[in-house]
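Example 3.2
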Amino acid sequence: MSSLAPRLDALEKNYLINGGFDFWQRGTSFATTATTIYSADRFFIGRDAFATGGTISRQAGGNIQFCARVQRDNGNTGTGRVYLIQLLELPFVKDLVGKTVTLSCKMRRGANFSAASNQVRLSMCTGTAGTQESSGTYFNAGFTGQVRTSSNVTIASTSSFDTYSMNLAVPSGTTNMSVELSFLPVGTAGAADYFEVSEMALTIAPISGNVKDFTRASRTYAEELSLCQRYYWSEIPSWLYLDGYSLSAGGYLVVGSWRHPQPMRTTPTMVMCTFGTQTGLGTPAFGVNTSTGFTINAVSTVNNGRMILQGANSNMTADAEI
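Structure, written as tokens:
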């Protein structure tokens, strides 16, 4: 009788979303500000004391299409740490409690990388709040009951992406979890004071203790996008269309309903697009808004006339990030 290989699905699952940095729905370059700023999908950036002078941007990757560049801006003299962070949602965290996990990624540094000994700090933080704590709460004060585990790794190369990793035994009672990459700059930044990261994964540690190849823990492009859109989506909604005929005086309410591309983590904050064609209707506004869909309301401005709303020419967005 032939033996059957054990199922490795759980061991090979990447608990980070967009670890390949394929999706940048909000744009491709972001500066640190007085608040936490989401950048590449599911990742936000920050700097100690909410200082300016840091940037994350999309760049060409090594073995894969893109990487993220975490940079102190040229000429900046601030020495606050620059962070790239992803918070895990509670259901993901509960799956990891009591297990040893591996945070792994590939990194290279810029020619002017200023961190002492060319070090990037890998960190995993756990908390015990019992509820989802926001990125702002986390970056301001940390999780409730936070414990930080870190490993400083020396980035050797300015050309090739090398693999770096650390392990963590996720303690009992953990409900909140983050992963961080950061560096502590010194002096004045040159034009290439950065590190670049790609192929980032959080997996249940393999029995052998070896870091698994990123591709074995990856999902398809479509699967990854659908996970990203659980937290945020941005689209020029060419599919949006309202058409009717007003049989009464102005003031007749027209309502259309649509579903989000994916059910969202929570009721999102939405931003309206502008429309290519808007005839016989006042300013459109969101009506009902839930985690699964939304309505758009508009009031007629014509009496016995055609009413049309179609052909968006700017992005509509829905944000349900942590």
